């Protein structure tokens, strides 16, 4: 928890949200018990709207934007 890859993922998501001008809340979970509740085997992990969309890697900014757009389309 709080590893460099996790921090990189957080920064990448923040950059994608800013570039898309997309209002959203971002939570970086570092508590091991909380992480275990979600059942992640590998970190970093990215969840969007309570759906796991990436684990064990830091997706590119482009890919994160695609995932955010897909999630946005599912909610509209």
Brief summary of the model shown:
This protein has 76 residues and is mainly α.
The radius of gyration computed from the alpha-carbon positions, rounded to a whole number of angstroms, is 12 Å
Low-confidence stretches: none
Average pLDDT: 90
Proportion of beta-strand residues:
5-15%
Order of helices and strands: HHEEH
- Helix and strand composition category: mainly alpha
Give the distance, in angstroms, between the N- and C-terminal Cα atoms.
33 Å
Could you tell me the number of beta strands?
A: 2
Roughly how much helix do the residues carry, as a percent range?
A: 40-55%
Largest sheet: 2 strands, antiparallel
Shape: globular
Q: If helices are DSSP runs of H or I spanning 4 or more residues, what is the number of helices?
A: 3
Strand order of the biggest β-sheet: 1-2
Feature tags:
76 residues; 2 strands; 12% strand; two-stranded antiparallel sheet; mainly alpha; globular
Describe it for me?
By secondary structure, the protein is mainly α. Helix content is 51%, strand content 12%. Strands 1-2 form a two-stranded antiparallel ribbon. The model has no long low-confidence stretch (mean pLDDT 90). Helix 1 packs across helix 3.
Write the layout of secondary structure elements.
Layout: H1 4-20, H2 32-38, E1 45-48, E2 51-55, H3 61-75
Antiparallel strand pairs: 1-2
